[in-house]
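User: Just a sanity check before I run the rest of the batch. Below are the structure tokens for the first item. I only need the designed sequence back.
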């Protein structure tokens, strides 16, 4: 009880500081918990009972995410589950949609609310690994008394966001533990594992979204990264992960404007032979001109009618 009171006093003291939020990301999250979400660090969460209806809806909507992520969650649990850690996958709002825990730990995690159907957003729980990782779009660890609510200071939460094929946030991966002997050094090791697994899930989701496309690494990306581009049979980039979008200055989320892969990577790899090269050149010109045939014809040094004849022969419409 004394520890909880000391924690609340620390949070209030930080909230009272005029510049704490500007100097610390943790303090900024505490400020959000208090000012934006109106949470009392001394008060317990209103409920930790699973929301069955919301859980069913989100599991249906994220069925492909669950299918892709399940083997990765199993592998991660096999590596660290014996340490008393639980593995959670949430949706983009912080609702737990899947979990792994040892048979001896399931009841403990249920009591903590670390179970499917429970909302761990910042709005519901204040500063915590899941909600703060989602709010800040980055991997992080919230260790024990870094939590906002006093009732959560007995746990450590290590998290990483997962971004979907369209570049938008789609899920978050969490490893949580309520073991008192779990050190910050051990948490850093787990954070590296969680970040890697989140990257693998992101990569697999992207590949599953473009099953018939060539998947290539973005410029300067490491092979283990999720900086991927989807290239169609005409060597046009039609999809990109969040990291690839950032590296190449593409649209941050949603559909991307198609670009010739040579414009992004400086190299080609499309159809072979004279006709293949001609087709690729025409499609590149149309793609750069965003379907404007007159502009594409000028770029190719052709008349508009001539380009139309070539497009018809090559089976290309105005969209490339």
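Assistant: Here's the designed sequence for the first item:
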């Amino acid at each position: 009880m004394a520890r909880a009171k000391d924690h609340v006093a620390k949070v209030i003291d930080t909230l009272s500081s005029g510049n704490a939020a500007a100097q610390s990301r943790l303090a900024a999250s505490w400020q959000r918990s208090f000012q934006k979400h109106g949470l009392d660090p001394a008060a317990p969460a209103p409920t930790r009972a699973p929301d069955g209806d919301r859980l069913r809806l989100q599991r249906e909507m994220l069925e492909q995410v669950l299918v892709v992520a399940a083997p990765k969650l199993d592998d991660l649990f096999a590596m660290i589950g014996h340490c008393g850690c639980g593995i959670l996958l949430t949706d983009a709002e912080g609702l737990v949609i899947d979990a792994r825990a040892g048979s001896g730990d399931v009841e403990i995690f249920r009591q903590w609310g670390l179970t499917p159907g429970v909302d761990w957003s910042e709005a519901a729980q204040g500063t915590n690994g899941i909600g703060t990782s989602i709010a800040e779009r980055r991997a992080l660890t919230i260790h024990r008394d870094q939590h906002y609510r006093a009732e959560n200071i007995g746990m450590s939460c290590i998290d990483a966001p997962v971004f979907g094929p369209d570049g938008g946030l789609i899920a978050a991966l969490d490893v949580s533990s309520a073991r008192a002997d779990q050190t910050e050094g051990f948490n850093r090791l787990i954070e590296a594992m969680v970040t890697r697994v989140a990257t693998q899930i992101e990569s697999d989701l992207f590949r599953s979204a473009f099953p018939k496309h060539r998947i290539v690494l973005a410029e300067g990306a490491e092979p283990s990264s999720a900086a991927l581009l989807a290239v169609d049979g005409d060597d046009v980039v039609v999809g990109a992960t969040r990291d690839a979008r950032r590296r190449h200055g593409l649209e941050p989320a949603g559909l991307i404007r198609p670009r010739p892969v040579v414009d992004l990577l400086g190299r080609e790899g499309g159809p072979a032979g004279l006709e293949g090269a001609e087709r690729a050149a025409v499609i590149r010109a149309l793609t750069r001109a965003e379907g404007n045939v007159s502009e594409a014809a000028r770029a190719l040094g052709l008349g508009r009618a001539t380009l139309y004849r070539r497009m018809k022969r090559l089976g290309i419409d105005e969209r490339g």
